[in-house]
């Protein structure tokens, strides 16, 4: 399996960077994870780090060259990360639990599967065109909100699920998607997609190499955020 990867994170206008990202791979399978700790709760960056580390540990434990059932791995990874965050909060005697969103993707045998909880996104591009992206677990993108509330009263930052909350997280899994040579995957937090449209992201990601397009996307997001 051959792939190129580029990682970049900038703090922007926030007090601290609560995004965490990483990847690990074997000869036949690759895992890619991004988590975004949620503000308004303690230790968001810790929750994001726990999610990343839990997925990585599960992958290293289960991927003996390849994963037996990718969908099972992703489901187990989400719930294991959630429970690890709850355990951390209990051990630290926190009055509120740390919380994070997460999106994780596995590529194995040229096939893509992914899972997400919250509003961290995955984009799949083919020949410069958007093939798929995750739907946020937010009231703004929920069917109930679309059908029953005016757009001006919807806040894209209000999520109805995440890891670390007292209630069991809701998550969506997608796949299998058969990849073709040249397909591009983007995992990102709302720091990127919150200021750039899907069209902006697709156009830039398809225009240059990954190592060139990703920094340019981040710079565009920072500029737009500064102008708003």
Cross-sheet strand order for the largest sheet: 1-2-3-4-7
- Helix share, percent: 25-40%
pLDDT averaged over residues: 91
Unreliable stretches, pLDDT < 50, 5 or more residues?
A: none
Distance between the termini: 42 Å
As a whole number of angstroms, the C-alpha radius of gyration is: 17 Å
Question: How does this structure look, described?
Answer:
There is one protein chain. The chain is of the alpha+beta class and 228 residues long. It has 6 helices and 8 strands, in the order E-E-H-H-E-E-E-E-H-E-E-H-H-H. Strand 5 and strand 6 form a beta hairpin. Helix 1 crosses helix 2 (70-91). The longest helix is centred in the middle third of the chain and has 22 residues, at 70-91. The mean pLDDT is 91.
List the helices and strands and how they pair.
Layout: E1 19-25, E2 29-37, H1 44-62, H2 70-91, E3 100-108, E4 111-117, E5 121-126, E6 129-133, H3 143-148, E7 172-178, E8 184-188, H4 190-193, H5 198-207, H6 210-227
Antiparallel strand pairs: 1-2, 2-3, 3-4, 4-7, 5-6, 5-8
Based on the model shown, name its key terms:
single chain, 228 residues, alpha+beta, three-stranded antiparallel β-sheet
């Amino acid at each position: 399996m051959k792939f190129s990867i580029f990682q970049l994170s900038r703090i922007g206008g926030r007090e601290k960077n609560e995004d965490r990202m990483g990847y690990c791979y074997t000869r036949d399978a690759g895992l890619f994870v991004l988590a975004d700790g949620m503000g308004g709760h303690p230790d968001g960056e810790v929750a994001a780090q726990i999610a990343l580390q839990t997925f990585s540990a599960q992958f290293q434990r289960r991927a003996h060259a390849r994963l037996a059932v990718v969908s099972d791995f992703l489901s187990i990874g989400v719930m294991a990360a959630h429970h690890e965050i709850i355990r951390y909060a209990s051990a630290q005697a926190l009055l509120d639990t740390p919380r994070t969103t997460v999106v994780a993707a596995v590529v194995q045998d040229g096939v893509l599967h992914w899972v997400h909880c919250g509003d961290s996104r995955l984009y799949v591009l083919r020949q410069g065109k958007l093939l798929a992206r995750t739907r946020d677990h937010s009231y703004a993108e929920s069917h109930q909100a679309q059908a029953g509330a005016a757009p001006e009263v919807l806040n894209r930052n209000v999520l109805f699920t995440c890891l670390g909350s007292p209630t069991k997280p809701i998550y969506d899994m997608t796949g299998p998607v058969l990849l073709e040579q040249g397909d591009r995957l983007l995992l990102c937090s709302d720091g990127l997609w919150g200021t750039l449209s899907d069209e902006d992201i697709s156009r830039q990601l398809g225009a240059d190499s990954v190592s060139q397009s990703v920094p340019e996307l981040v710079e565009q997001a920072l500029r737009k955020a500064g102008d708003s």
